[in-house]
Amino acid sequence: MSVPSPFSSALAALAESQYEGAEAFLTACSTLRILLLGATDAKRRSVRRTNPRIASVIGVAGIEEAMLSLGFREEGERITLDDSVDRFAGVALLDSAAGGVRRHGLAPIQRTSDTKGWSAELHAPCVLDANPKFKGAVLDLRPRDGAPSGVLAFHNSPFSNWWPCGASIEFCHLGVSLRFATSEAILMAFKQHLLAPMAGVAPHASLAAALGTHAAIHSPAESKEVAARATRRASDYTWWAHHGVHVLVGAAVCLLKFSQDVGLRRLLLRTQGVLIVEAAPHDGAWGVAMNTSQALRAVDELPRRFGPRSEAQDPVQFDVGANRIIRPSCEANALGKALMVARDALLAGADAPASMELRDAVALAARQMRLDELPVDWECAERKLADALTASV
């Protein structure tokens, strides 16, 4: 096995740092800058284009074009830095990128889901088998009796609702076209409109108004905070989770998100037959209240506890007067289930283009969830959504 060159490792670190934050990005830039200035042996200044992390930084950050324009040469699947390269111009390029990050933070566009970005790691056949660990998610493909062919435990990755969608998520609601930077913003609009009355807060006049508010918010953290304030931080353990409304809404949103981006669609379909769980250690409604390591240590229990047809470990106690769940319901891992429903719908030929009405996307998700036989109170879930999806005022 060949040992990666310092230059290759530094460029890989630059790719990795894009998903960790500005400080990591600046550190990687500094390391690569030092190597460029001190590089002497051309044989140790070569990178493999097929390395997923290299492909990530080359494709997403636009570094490949800059490298070639500076005099790097292509040798098959390798890009090599030789003596003819203006290394000082390369350093200037890095300094410019680092300066931009210091002034404005790490640009979200560096995390888009184009085919050369993050999801490129999952596009090649069997790449999940060869690379079981990747940014923000871990795949376990060990065969086991009576379980799916694998388990994907994710947190910060394109499967997350917080992942910035490069081309945005688009749909129509009551004839009005809307665009969102993340799926989190759509979910928070639903949550704000539906749960505000429970918290004794006047909701938006309509779901359309709530969607309009969150469409103008580009930060998922800000969307979450706006919805939390508007609902007085109402818990997810309400009828919202008890009747599976959040799974239904989540599945419709995931169907829109993964239908409209080629890279994301390929990424999700590549997990066919795999149990998907959100390894969010502090979220037992949308996630499984475990991190990725904890989830995979309990991998044999995951299908029973968090699969599409999982059963509650304890009887659910629902306080009608307080309108909340006293004991968590079987609807933990709501995002994982929503992703699996969206995946099944895509595999069945469903599509949710930008021109689709939101209520039609919800109907598609509901139909697929019935086919998947998820244990949800469908009549109540759809009734609670019907008025919001059709009311114009």
Give a description of the structure.
The chain is α+β, with helices and mostly antiparallel strands. It has two domains: 7-103, Methane Monooxygenase Hydroxylase, Chain G, domain 1, CATH 1.20.58; 164-388, no CATH class. It has 17 helices and eleven strands. A four-stranded mixed sheet has the order 4-5-6-9. α1 crosses α3. The model is unreliable at 107-135, 312-320 and 323-330 (pLDDT under 50). It comes from Prymnesium polylepis. Residues 156-346 form the NADAR domain. Pfam families: NADAR.
Helical amount = 40-55%
Q: Quote the beta fraction.
A: 5-15%
Number of strands: 11
What is the domain total for the residues? Answer: 2
Oligomer: single chain
The ordered string of helix (H) and strand (E) elements is: HHEHHEEHHEEEEEHHHHHHEHHEEHHH
N-end to C-end Cα span: 65 Å
Mean pLDDT: 71
Largest sheet: 4 strands, mixed
Task: Compute the number of helices.
Answer: 17
In which order are the strands of the major sheet placed?
A: 4-5-6-9
Q: Tell me, what's the shape?
A: elongated
Structural class: alpha+beta
Radius of gyration: 23 Å
Domain NADAR: 156-346
Organism: Prymnesium polylepis
Protein name: NADAR domain-containing protein
InterPro entries: NADAR, PUB-like_dom_sf, YbiA-like_sf
